[in-house]
Specification:
By secondary structure, this protein is mainly alpha-helical. Helices cover 85% and strands 0% of the residues. The mean pLDDT is 95.
Length: 91
């Protein structure tokens, strides 16, 4: 039961990260008010790093910013390592 809830959470938060990258890219192209970078990182930190990374690559957004090209994958790796550790410890 808990595994299903966690899976649903990570799918939802990854989708939010992906949509945030898409939306920010569209706003950038139009020259409009943008999503703060802190918010884009927040979605990744809350568990949406996979969706954020996918959005970066697919929409070619924030790929020139080292903060994003290094930071988002590092967040993903840390989250993946934590997931593996917890799975090995508690399963």
């Amino acid at each position: 039961m808990l595994a299903k809830i966690l899976a649903a959470y990570f799918i939802a938060i990854s989708l939010l990260g992906f949509i945030s990258m898409y939306r920010d890219k569209r706003l950038a192209v139009k020259g409009r008010w943008r999503t703060p970078e802190k918010r884009l990182f927040l979605w990744a930190l809350l568990g949406g790093s996979l969706g954020s990374m996918a959005g970066m690559v697919l929409f070619r957004h924030k790929t020139r910013h080292l903060r994003f090209t290094i930071g988002i994958p590092l967040i993903f790796l840390a989250q993946a390592a934590l997931a593996v550790f917890l799975a090995l410890r508690y399963l």
